[in-house]
């Protein structure tokens, strides 16, 4: 009989703490494999990211480990996802396997609330992961470090304790950008960014420009807008010293592009250039042009921008040039 450890969860996203648990469980339980069971819908959680995204992120994180697999079983089962239903299917499908179910010690108090728990504990051996042996339980233990990491904190942008490939995947697909932005800037700034994105996607659709890349540039462009002058200056000194003489109004675009690249491993040069140059329209790629127009013409700006929007839809380059002229005239008036 092969010994298989089952590790279920939302994994929204998977992080270093999950991987640490999996590694210690495999070794201490002398298991043949560990299978990640990505829940289609956790009965104790609401509003998870789409299953295929969470599944792909687990695949990316576990790719280097031959004894780890990820199953999409629950995506094909009725909702909501219950562990007992998953185990019944696995037992019928793999009668040559002995299954254990790995959980963290923090789940012990609610374990008896799981559907058909009495049957479930007869079907699988529960294994409890904890930092020491002081946990009061009759189940076998796996002892290892409990990392102070939560998927919630990653979604909010507070930490990035997961694999670079996961950070890149989730950012390029915009999985948590809304939440990251809401936890970083004021509501006024957040609403501005959403209006910029909406208008940019409107223009991008007319000109057949990739919506995902445009949305990413829009959602990130003002991420650092409300960071302190000191923080922005330090970023410019460390990362863009040759641009330090620019007016400080440009700094937040450079800082946001730097964060997108260094923190979230995005390597799309056209997106990065669009974010970096959105203040003055320095990027002449379509993504940069669309971001610049949408930033200056979003419908909450307090002036009638529809003529400029219409022109930009008819001819992107002419619209870009006209918005730049209008912006230049506006700045000159305000400097007089």
TrEMBL record:
For this protein, the record's Gene3D superfamilies field holds: HUPs (3.40.50.620), Hypothetical protein af1432 (1.10.3210.10)
What's a single GO MF annotation on this record? nicotinate-nucleotide adenylyltransferase activity
Q: Does the keyword Nucleotide-binding apply?
A: yes
- Entry EC number(s): 2.7.7.18
Q: Which UniProt keywords apply?
A: ATP-binding, Hydrolase, Iron, Metal-binding, NAD, Nucleotide-binding, Nucleotidyltransferase, Pyridine nucleotide biosynthesis, Transferase
Q: Which terms under GO biological process does the entry name?
A: NAD+ biosynthetic process
Q: Where is the HD domain?
A: 189-299
Q: Which reaction does it catalyse?
A: P(1),P(4)-bis(5'-adenosyl) tetraphosphate + H2O = 2 ADP + 2 H(+); nicotinate beta-D-ribonucleotide + ATP + H(+) = deamido-NAD(+) + diphosphate
Q: Which domain of life is it from?
A: Bacteria
The enzyme's main class, written as a single word, is transferase
Give the pathway: Cofactor biosynthesis; NAD(+) biosynthesis; deamido-NAD(+) from nicotinate D-ribonucleotide: step 1/1
Q: What biological function has been recorded for the protein in this entry?
A: Catalyzes the reversible adenylation of nicotinate mononucleotide (NaMN) to nicotinic acid adenine dinucleotide (NaAD).
Task: Indicate the family of this protein.
Answer: Belongs to the NadD family.
Identification of the protein by name: Probable nicotinate-nucleotide adenylyltransferase
């Amino acid at each position: 009989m092969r010994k298989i450890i089952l590790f279920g969860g939302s994994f929204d996203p998977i992080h270093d703490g999950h991987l640490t648990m999996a590694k210690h469980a495999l070794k201490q339980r002398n298991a043949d494999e560990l299978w990640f069971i990505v829940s289609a819908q956790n009965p104790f959680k609401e509003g998870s990211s789409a299953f295929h995204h969470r599944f792909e992120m687990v695949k990316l994180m576990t790719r280097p480990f031959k004894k780890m697999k990820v199953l999409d079983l629950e995506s094909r089962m009725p909702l909501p996802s219950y562990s007992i239903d998953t185990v019944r299917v696995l037992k019928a499908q793999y009668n040559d396997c002995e299954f254990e179910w790995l959980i963290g010690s923090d789940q012990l108090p609610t374990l008896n609330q799981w559907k058909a728990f009495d049957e479930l504990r007869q079907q699988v051996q529960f294994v409890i992961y904890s930092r020491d042996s002081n946990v009061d339980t009759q189940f076998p233990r796996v002892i290892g470090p409990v990392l102070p990491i939560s998927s919630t904190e990653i979604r909010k942008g507070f930490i990035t304790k997961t694999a670079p490939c996961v950070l890149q995947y989730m950012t390029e697909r915009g999985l948590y950008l809304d939440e990251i932005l809401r936890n970083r800037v004021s509501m006024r700034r957040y609403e501005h960014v959403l209006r910029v994105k909406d208008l940019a996607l409107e223009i991008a659709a007319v000109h057949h420009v990739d919506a995902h890349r445009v949305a990413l540039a829009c959602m990130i462009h003002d991420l650092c807008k409300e960071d302190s002058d000191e923080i922005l200056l330090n970023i410019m000194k460390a990362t863009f010293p040759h641009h330090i003489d620019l007016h400080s109004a440009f700094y937040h675009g450079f800082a946001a592009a730097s964060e997108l690249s260094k923190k979230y491993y995005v390597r799309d040069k056209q997106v990065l250039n669009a974010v970096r140059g959105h203040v003055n329209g320095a990027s002449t790629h379509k993504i940069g042009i669309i971001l610049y127009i949408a930033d200056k013409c979003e419908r909450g700006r307090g002036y009638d921008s529809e003529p400029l929007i219409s022109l930009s839809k008819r001819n992107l380059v002419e619209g870009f040039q006209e918005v730049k002229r209008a912006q230049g005239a506006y700045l000159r008036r305000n400097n007089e």
